[in-house]
Structures are given as C-alpha cells and as structure tokens.
Design goal:
By secondary structure, the protein is α/β, with parallel strands linked by helices. It has helices spanning 23-40, 45-61, 63-74, 78-104, 141-152, 170-175, 179-184, 192-199, 212-225, 247-259, 279-290, 311-326, 358-361; strands at residues 5-9, 107-109, 120-122, 129-133, 156-160, 185-187, 205-209, 229-232, 237-241, 269-274, 294-297, 330-333, 348-351, 368-369. It has a five-stranded parallel β-sheet with strand order 6-5-4-7-8, with helices on both faces. A three-stranded mixed β-sheet has the order 12-13-14, with helices on both faces. Strand 13 (348-351), helix 13 (358-361) and strand 14 form a beta-alpha-beta unit.
Length: 370
C-alpha cells in the first residue's frame, strides 16, 4: 500500500490573539453603520453594482496573492483555494451583477377584492445594518458572498470573520477598491464574545454559517430580541451509488465530494451507500484512487488535498475513526496524521460502518470516506 505523498508543507502560521469588543466598542461600530446606512440609502443600485464590478476585477487581478493568504491561514492546497474559494466567489459576483436588478425591481401584483380600486406593488427596501458571522472552512467564499448580497440589497454590513482564519488586512483591501463599499462594510475581529456583543446591539438581521452548537447559541440570543436570523449549519450527507452507474466516474465523484477542502464542508459526502452488485469493485477502485492523492498546503498547484484548519477538528475526526475501528470497522487506507504534530490527516477509506458508530451519526468534517 502506498503512503499518500507530501510534497512540501507550508503550514498555517500561528495567529496573534484577537482582542474582543467591549459593549461600548460594539455600540460605536453600530453607530457608524447607522450613518453609513443613511448615506447608502440615498444612492442607486447602479452605484452599488459598480463597486461590485470593481471588487470582481480586483479579485481576478490579485488572485495569486489572495490564494497565498488562504493557504497560509487555512492550510488549503492551492487547487482548493482557487476552485472553491476564488472561482466560487467570482461566480457569485457574476450572478449578482446579472440578476440583482431583476430581483430588486419593483413589481406590480394583483390586488385583493377587499381593496378594490387600489393598486398593489412589491417594493424591496434595505433591512438596515446586517451582521454576518463567517466560518473558518471557506472564509473568503462564504464571507464575501454573504457580505456582497447584503450590500447590493442596500444594507450596511458588519462582518466578523472566524478568529481561526481572520485574514486580517485582506478584507479591508478588498473593500477599499470602492469608497462607498469601504464606508458601508466594517470588518470586526474577535472570538464568539465579540459576536455576542454585536448581537446585543440588535442588528436588523444576523447571518451565521458554522456549527450547530454555535448556531443554537446565536438563535437563542437573537430570539431574545426578535432579530431575524439565517443559520447555515452542519450536516451528514450521503452518496447513494447504484449498480448501473459509470463506476470510474462515480468513484471519482464521491472522492471529490468527500475530500475536497479536506472534507471540511457542510455539504461534503460523509456516508457512502453502494449497491451490492458493484460494492467490491467500488471499494477497490476508491482505495486505489485515494492512495494516489498528494497532500500539501501552499503548494505550486500540484496537490489534491490540503490540511485541517483547526486542531480541535482534527481531534474529532481521529476520535470518530478510532471509535469506528474499535467497534469493528476496517480502515483500508489512511486513519492517521501524515506527520507528527502536523494537521494533515491522511484521506481515509473505512468500511463496515454501523449505526452505533459516531462516524455514522455525527458530523465528521474531515477527509474520511465511510
């Protein structure tokens, strides 16, 4: 059995501790956002879209530098940073540029008989100041997509990136391409305590992406103030493979779905059900393909899988694999870190999973194909 190759590892650098906000600082941030919102409400959608176009062009022109920051802070391989972060966010920008006018356009609608003689219409108005709390697994893609959707709709934005991947200075450079955007979007650093202080200022809406555990806390705090909240949380998704598929293509698709971004995606494939007629072939080919994968972070574009961003997540992944193995599951490849004290977990193929195993019932969020 071949070991996964490691080209050269440029791992994430230790970050300086971030200072959390006081209640006074949070209030000042919201006061500034209120002033920005007042100015923004006087400007047209065309002005906001012009800023978005500038931002899109800046990301394209500076993509290599942006990828360097992503690899340094997240341990992604360059392919993941390019495809799932940079290209993903550019695609969303293009979608907004194409569709924002249609979505935000005033619409005439039918009038109920009880309002005979009146005319009805739908008018889209900004909510106000929106708080966006982004995760560490896709800090650029999820962060910018959420921010720009709110901004294009006319809202001032307060953005708190994850303390694990703050990318300090990068977001400020991005928004500085347009003065209106720079005035309307504030970046605030800190831990969950800073998020709590910001929510206490009663934003018009909160958008959070992250774990179910943290999502529950945010939902509870928002409910106390009747703040509308969007939560994009974790999952435990499965792939179902029938025996009439193109085997080679299906194996590669499942591996990509499970291992892209080192499995650190809320929609990654975390369980695979294969019809018995092709099960043995599928497993053998999957093992063969997984053992070819190259691990690296900050590479020259020749790696397939990067490292884990958070040490606590690595611990969760390894505990689940060991639990499954202790209960009878069989590790065909992987199942361990690549190097001691490095956050590279070898892509793992494991069979014989049962319902009493954490690997079957709990989110894994790592490079494991069960």
């Amino acid at each position: 059995m071949l070991d996964n190759q490691l080209e050269s590892s440029s791992l994430a650098q230790p970050l300086e501790p971030l200072l959390d906000l006081s209640s006074r600082q949070a209030a000042d941030i919201f006061a500034r956002a209120g002033r920005a919102q007042s100015n923004l409400s006087k400007l047209t959608l065309d002005i906001r879209l012009a800023g978005l176009r500038k931002l899109l062009d800046y990301v394209v022109e500076n993509r290599d530098d942006i990828i360097d920051v992503l690899c340094r802070e997240t341990r992604k391989c360059r392919t993941d940073a390019l495809v799932s972060e940079v290209l993903g966010v550019l695609d969303n920008f293009e979608w907004l540029l194409k569709n924002a006018r249609k979505i935000l356009r005033e619409k005439r609608v039918s009038t109920p008989i009880t309002l005979l003689g009146k005319r009805s219409r739908i008018v889209h108005e900004p909510l106000g100041t929106v708080l966006i709390i982004a995760p560490w697994n896709y800090p650029l893609h999820i962060g910018l997509t959420s921010i720009l959707a709110a901004y294009v709709a006319g809202n001032a934005v307060i953005f708190k990136p994850s303390e694990l991947t703050p990318m300090q200075g990068l977001f400020e450079k991005l928004f500085a391409v347009d003065p209106v955007m720079a005035d309307s979007i504030q970046v605030v650093y800190g831990t969950g305590k800073s998020a709590e202080q910001l929510i206490e200022q009663k934003p018009a809406k909160v958008f959070f992406t992250g774990s179910a555990r943290t999502g529950r806390k945010i939902l509870h705090q928002c409910a106390e103030h009747l703040i509308p909240v969007d939560l994009e949380l974790g999952g435990k998704d499965q792939a179902i493979v029938f025996d009439d598929v193109n085997l080679e293509r299906s194996v590669k698709g499942v591996i990509w779905g499970a291992l892209t971004n080192a499995g650190q995606s809320c929609s990654s494939v975390e369980r695979v059900y294969v019809q018995s007629g092709i099960y043995e072939q599928f497993v053998a080919l999957a093992q063969q393909e997984i053992e070819k994968l190259v691990l690296n972070s900050g590479d020259a574009g020749n790696a397939d899988v990067g490292g884990m961003t958070a040490d606590f997540q690595l611990d969760i992944v390894h505990r689940q694999v060991i639990d499954a193995q202790a209960k009878g599951a069989r590790i065909l490849t992987g199942g361990a870190t690549l190097l001691d004290n490095e956050l590279f977990y070898r892509p793992t193929l494991i069979t014989g999973i049962e319902d009493d195993m954490a690997l079957m019932t709990q989110e894994t969020f790592g490079p494991v194909v069960p």
